Amino acid sequence: MTKEKIETAREIVKEADAVLITAGAGMGVDSGLPDFRGVQGFWRAYPAAKRLNLRFEELANPRWFKEDPALAWAFYGHRLNLYRKTKPHKGFKLLLDLTKEKGGNYFVFTSNVDGHFQKAGFDKERIVEIHGTIHYLQCANRCTREVWEAPKEDIKIDMQNFKALTIPKCKNCGGVARVNILMFGDWEYIADYRNRQMDRLLNWLKSVETSGQKLAVIEIGAGLAVPTVRNFNEEVCSDYTKAKLIRINPREDQTPPKLGVGLHMGGLEALEKIVKS
Prior knowledge:
Layout: H1 2-15, E1 18-23, H2 26-29, H3 38-45, H4 47-51, H5 56-59, H6 63-67, H7 69-85, H8 90-101, E2 106-110, H9 116-119, E3 127-129, E4 132-139, E5 148-149, E6 157-158, E7 163-164, E8 177-181, H10 192-210, E9 215-220, H11 228-239, E10 243-248, E11 260-263, H12 267-274
Parallel strand pairs: 1-2, 1-9, 2-3, 9-10, 10-11
Antiparallel strand pairs: 4-5, 4-8, 6-7
């Protein structure tokens, strides 16, 4: 059955005129990044959070940038440093080569905030970071709607006490800056940058549909815990006449048969099987 599904996925990719690449946290696992799956997985990645008895959903909250900026920037600063140092895995190149085969007729939609698609060479004008990006900052007090690039220097952190020793400041008011990421319980996220990305994607999807092109939607590592990517893909494949979904997930690969095919495997393993190297 797996062999048949792989062949089906290969055919979807081969016949496609356009490609929508979508990704969740599982996309970064093959690069060595943690996916924070479950509270124990998060605490293995951040033992200090376990000492504080804070789950991911509690720590990834904008309140800390006001109540304890050193704690907030210990968490997000460590992740920023980590994402900068980590090299995107081979699967990114396989996908990038595929987009070139399709004449650059592609878009990326990801819930990841790590910026690894840009780092791997994808056009930043063809990427939607639906939950924002760690590489841009905004004012924690929203003194302005402006967002700007994070400082190039690493954030210095006392990991033993899990406190940031350097805290980025708002370029306008001088107060604490925060990452331009949509967090849990977040009513202060400035979505302008993300919304411009989304507008470009929707215009592209409309052109794909109106011109009658076949669309391959390749989803990698998007789980059910935060189903933003999965829901978006299923909407696209339901609404667009010639769209087919390839869902790659080692745990949650269930896919409505009318929408496409699910592959019960990791991202890199699957891409090596279905995308020409």
